[in-house]
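Appendix B. Extra example for self-study. Work through it before the problem class; the solution is given directly after the inputs so you can check yourself.
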Amino acid sequence: MNSFGIKLKFSTFGESHGKAIGCLLDGVPAGLDIDEAYIQSELDRRKPGKSEFETARKEADKVEILSGVFEGKSTGTPIAMVIYNTNQKSKDYSNIKDVFRPGHADFTYFHKYGIRDYRGGGRSSARETAARVAAGAIAKLLLRELEISVVSGISEVAGIQGDNFDYEAAKKSIIYALDANKEAAQKEAILTAKKAHDSVGGVSRVLIKGAPAGLGEPLYYKLDGVLADAMMGLNAVKAVEIGDGVLSARKHGSQNNDPIRANGFESNHAGGILGGISNGEDIVVNVYFKPTPSIFQEQHTVTTHNEEVDFALKGRHDPCVAIRGTVVCEAMAALVIADMLLLNMGATMGGIKRYYNHDECV
Amino acid sequence: MNSFGIKLKFSTFGESHGKAIGCLLDGVPAGLDIDEAYIQSELDRRKPGKSEFETARKEADKVEILSGVFEGKSTGTPIAMVIYNTNQKSKDYSNIKDVFRPGHADFTYFHKYGIRDYRGGGRSSARETAARVAAGAIAKLLLRELEISVVSGISEVAGIQGDNFDYEAAKKSIIYALDANKEAAQKEAILTAKKAHDSVGGVSRVLIKGAPAGLGEPLYYKLDGVLADAMMGLNAVKAVEIGDGVLSARKHGSQNNDPIRANGFESNHAGGILGGISNGEDIVVNVYFKPTPSIFQEQHTVTTHNEEVDFALKGRHDPCVAIRGTVVCEAMAALVIADMLLLNMGATMGGIKRYYNHDECV
Amino acid sequence: MNSFGIKLKFSTFGESHGKAIGCLLDGVPAGLDIDEAYIQSELDRRKPGKSEFETARKEADKVEILSGVFEGKSTGTPIAMVIYNTNQKSKDYSNIKDVFRPGHADFTYFHKYGIRDYRGGGRSSARETAARVAAGAIAKLLLRELEISVVSGISEVAGIQGDNFDYEAAKKSIIYALDANKEAAQKEAILTAKKAHDSVGGVSRVLIKGAPAGLGEPLYYKLDGVLADAMMGLNAVKAVEIGDGVLSARKHGSQNNDPIRANGFESNHAGGILGGISNGEDIVVNVYFKPTPSIFQEQHTVTTHNEEVDFALKGRHDPCVAIRGTVVCEAMAALVIADMLLLNMGATMGGIKRYYNHDECV
Amino acid sequence: MNSFGIKLKFSTFGESHGKAIGCLLDGVPAGLDIDEAYIQSELDRRKPGKSEFETARKEADKVEILSGVFEGKSTGTPIAMVIYNTNQKSKDYSNIKDVFRPGHADFTYFHKYGIRDYRGGGRSSARETAARVAAGAIAKLLLRELEISVVSGISEVAGIQGDNFDYEAAKKSIIYALDANKEAAQKEAILTAKKAHDSVGGVSRVLIKGAPAGLGEPLYYKLDGVLADAMMGLNAVKAVEIGDGVLSARKHGSQNNDPIRANGFESNHAGGILGGISNGEDIVVNVYFKPTPSIFQEQHTVTTHNEEVDFALKGRHDPCVAIRGTVVCEAMAALVIADMLLLNMGATMGGIKRYYNHDECV
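Solution. C-alpha cells for the complete assembly:
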C-alpha cells in the first residue's frame, strides 16, 4: 500500500533515519525529456534548512536516477530515484526511545506493527515527501508538454488569511506566501510561536491551469476524490477543499452555481470540477495543515509500556509544516493530473480508432 | 473505475433513467448473517419522497439479492444486489435535451464521453448512491460483529451550525438534525429557499465508534486519505474534514495536540486518526455538501452546440442534498472501515502465525 | 477477487443454482455499437444441451443489459448484464449434500470458506463462464472496430490430435473441431467414454489475428502472462501454451527462433509474442482441459465430516468440457486483447500529444 | 505495470546496462527476521558465471537493503533492495546497435516504445530476474515461519526427460538436475549445442510443500491462474502446467480424478489445486523454457530501418536459460504463495473475529 496512481503509478520507500529514501515511478511514457536539473530544483524548493521559518536540519536531498532513462529520455520502463540520507548521525535517542510524541504517528504505528523505530518518525516522517517531489517533478515535465501547469502557495498561516493571490510572488517568497500584503504578519506569527516553543498551522492553495475538460474517472476514481486522497494523505493535513469548499455548504444554489457562456464559465465556485470530472476551468484545491505536533513544551503522554510521563520534545522542527508542505501538494497534484490524462485516453471509441490508425490523419 | 475498496470491494452500475441500478460487493467473508430486512431499512432511510424537505420523486428502492447468500449467510462469493427503477416514466425531456444544467455533471460527461443521456443525470445522478447504501448496510452488519458502529447526522444547514450533537436524536429527525435546538431553524432555512426556487448547502458529520487502533495502510491507503476520497467522491461534496479539520490549521500545536494518558487520549482534535492510522478514539469526519445545483430560477447556460440560452429547470429536486446524503456518508464510512479491518490482517508476523495455527490457543 | 482486467475490467457474480449469474463490464469506451443480438449469439454458442456431445441440461441463457447502453451505443459507464437461471428446479440433493465430488472444487471451497452450497458447483460451476462470454462478446465488438479477430476451435480430443486447422470449419462443427479429418474419431472417443460413464480431456486452440505489435505491459502485465492467467483460471484447464509451447523446450535455438524479413517474420514459433509484447504476427494459445471430473463410476471420497464413502455421481454433465470451453477461451482472449489495447495508449509521449492535440492532424 | 501481487506486492526496476537493478517489496508483515545472508545465498544460486553451462558474464549480484528493516526485523514498511551493475563496461555495440536479434524482445520494445536501448536487453534482459530472486528470498523466509517450503529443479533438457525427481540432489547439481541418472546426458546435450553455436530448451519443475488447503482467490485471482501468469511472464517461458498438465487432457476422467480418503488424496494428478484453490497436497508446476534465442549462427533479421541483414550474434550467453531460470521460478512461486496466504486471511467471519479478539483464546 505504498503506491499511488493507476496508469502513472509511483511507489516510495525509506525511513527518515535509514540509509535512503526513494521512489519508483512507473508508467512514464517513452520519449519524455528527463531534465535532471529540474528534478533537483524541485527537491531544493522542499528541502529543509533554507530559513528560520523551517527546521534547522540540513539535508542535501541529492537525487540519483537509477533506471528508466537512456540518453536523457524516458524509455517507458520504471524510473527509480534514490536520495541517500546524509544527516542521520548516531544521536542520543534515549529520551524519546520509549515515549510516544503527542500528535505524532508513533503511537499508531506501534499499535499496528508492534515495532518501534525509535530514531524518529521512521516511515511516517515528512522526510518521505522528498520522494513524492521527485516523482512530481517528472509529472510536471510531462504536463508541460501538454501546456498544463501546477503552481501553489501559502494562503493562510495561523489564521491570518490572504485574499489576493499571486502565484508568481509566492515562488519568490521564503514562506511561499500568496498574498504579499499578509506575508509580514504571517512570518511574525510563525516566529512568535517558535519563540514560545510552539507551532502554527497553515493552508496551501494549489492551482492547476490548462487541464482539458474530461479528466477524472467516475464514479470511483473521480478527480476531486483522488485529489482529496492525495492531499489528505500528506502528513498533518486535516481538511481538503475543492473550489469554494466549506463556503459552498453555506451558500444558496443561486449563489454557488457557475453560469455557462459560449466561451466558458462565468465564475468558478466549483474549482474546475463537476461530477468528478474537470470542466476546463482552473482547478483549485485548498489543503489545511495542522500545526507541527513537535513542540518543545511539556505534554502529557505515555511510554510503550503505557506508563504516564510528562515530556518535552527536543530537536529541530519546522514551526509551520504547511510551508514546505505546499511544494509536496504541487507534486501530488501534478501526479494526479498526469495519471488522469493517461487514464482518460480510451474514453471514446473515436479516440481509440484515431490513436491506432493515426496515419489516416497525415 | 466504478469500484471502490481493495479487500472489500464494491462496484456499482446503473443510470437514473435506465432499467436498474445495483452493486456487486466482493470480499464479504463467508458466514456473515445477511439480514435483508436491515439492508432494506437502510435503503429506506435514503429513499426520496419521505417529506417536504426532500424531492417529491418517489422510488420504492426495493433491493433484490441475486447471489452470494445461501440459507441466510454469506458464502464468500460476490453479493450482487439490484434495484429496479420504477419511476422512469417516459416524460418530455425536450426542454433539457440539449441544455447543460449549471452546476451539474452533464457538461463534463459530454466533454469526456461525447455522448449525452438527456433523460436526467444518468450515471452521475445521486440515484446511484442507493447502491452504495445497500453495500454499506452489509459492511455495517460485518462491523456490528466486531462491535464497531457508524452513525451520522446533519450538523449544519445553510450556515446554521449545530454545536451539541446527539446521534440518537438525529436518527429520529426528519432532516437527521444532530442538534435538536437548531433543527427548527434549519428546517425553516430549507423551506424558505425552496419557496424562492432555490436550494441550500449542508454538512454531514460521521462518527465511527469502536474501531481498534491500527486501521489504515500507510502511506498511500491511509485511513484519512481513503475516507476523504470516499466522501469527496459523493455528488455535491466540496470539502472533507477529519477531526477539527479546517480549525486545526488556525490553532497552535499546544492547542491542537491530544495529550495521552494510560487509558486513552485526553482530547480528540485529531478525529481518531494519526499518521493515517486509527488511534482507538472516535473517528470523526465532516462532509460539506454544496447546495443542490438544480434550482428553478433562470440561469445562463449553453446547449450541446455551444449556443447561449437562459434556462430555468423544472421537475422535482431535493432542496438540500446533504440530508439524504448523510445516509450515504455513513455507508461509505462503513465500507472503508470494513475494508481497512480486512487489510490490516497480516500486519504482523505474530498475527499471521496466530491465524494459521489457531488451534494453538485452545 | 472476482474481477479481471485493468482498463477494461469485468466482474462476474452468481452461482449455478442461485437466482442469476451476470457480469459488470467496466471501461468500455463510449460510442461503441452494442449489438445485443450478437452478444446473444455468442452465448448461444456456449449454451448447453445442443447435442449429445454436451450435457443434457438446458438453459436459455438469455442475457439482459441493465445499464451502460443508451440508444444502442455504449455510454462509457459500466455495462451490467444479467442471465437468470431457469433450470434450477428444486431437486433432491440428498445424495451429494455432504459428499465431496473427486476432481471438483467443493472440497477446496469448503476448506476455504467453511460453507457448503450443496446444490451443485455453486460459484465454482462452469455455468459462471456464460457471464464471461457475454463480456467477451462486447470485447469482440470493440476489436472488430480495429479489425482484430479472435477465433478458436478444438485441436485435440482424448489424445486424438488434429494437425490441419481450419477455423471456419470449426465454427460449423458441432464439437468445434479444427481438423475435419479427425472430427469423426474425436466424436467417437467422446461417445465411447460417455457410454462407459467416463469423460475425456481436450485442447482448445485460440487464434488472434490483426493485433498490432506493441500490446502487453512489461514486466508484470505481459501479454503472454495475462493470457496464461486468463486461460488457466478456467475450470478444468491444467496447461497453457503460447506458440510452440512445450515443443519449444525440446528444440534448439536455431530451430525455434523466427527469422525476420522486411515484411514480417518467416515463421511463428513464438506464437506472436516476444518479451511479453505482441510482434504483429498471429497470436496462438493452446489451452488444455482435463476430462470432466463428473463421472458416473464409483469413486473413493469423503464427506464433510471426513467419513470415507464410495460414491457414484448422477445427473447430466458434459463428457468433454473442452468443447463448450473453447467458446470461453475466445471470450477471455478477446477481453485480454481489448484491455491491452487500452493500456497501450500512453506508451509514448508522441502518442499522448497526438491524442490530446488531434486537431493538429486535420 | 512493473508490480506483481496484491497484499504482498513487489515492484522491480532497472536495466541490464544501467546503473542498478532492484526491487521494492511491499506488504511484508512486521516482525519477520530478515536474514540478509540468506537473501544473498539465493542470489548466488541464480548469478551467472558459475560453470560452463552458464554464460561467462560475471556479476557479483551483491544486494543492499535500503529500507524496511530495523535491528534485523521487518518493520511493516516497504523493503527496498538494490543491486548495482558492475559488469556494464563500455563495450562496442556497433554491430547490434540497429539490428533486431531474432527471438528477442528488442523488436517488440522498439515497436511499443519507439526507443532503442542498444546496449543489450535493457529492461527485457533476464538480468532483471535477480531482483525477483531477492524478493522471493524474503517470501521464503515468511513461508518458513509457517512451515511451507518451495523447491525446484530441472526435469528436462533438450528433450531428455528425467522421471525420478530428487529435489535434494537438484540443489547440489551444477545444472540443478532433478534426475541424477539423466544429468550426464543433459549436460552433454548442453555442451554439444554450445559447441555448435546453438542453444537448448529445458523444463523447470517447482514443488511447494506444506501449503494449507484454502489458498487462492476465486474466480479471478486463482492460485493456478496466478502461478501461470508468474511463470509465463518469465523470459523464454512458453508453457506452464499444473500437476499432470498437458497429459491430463489426454486422459479419461476415471484416470485423472484423485480419489479422496480421510487422510488425504490417493493421488495428485491435480498438482494440489482444485477450482483454483489449494487442496492441501503438494503443489506442482512445470515451466517450459525455450532455447536461448542468443545463438552465434547467422540468422535473417532486419534493422530498425527495416533493412534486411544476415546477422550472427557475439558475446556471452547461457546455452540453456532454464537452468538459472529454475531459481527464478522458485522465487515467483514463493511470492505467489505468500501473497495468497495474506489474501486468504479474512475468508471467514470466524477467522476475522478470532483475529480481532485473540485474547479470547488465552
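Self-check: Residues 322-344 of chain B form the longest helix (23 residues). If your reasoning did not lead you there, revisit section 3.
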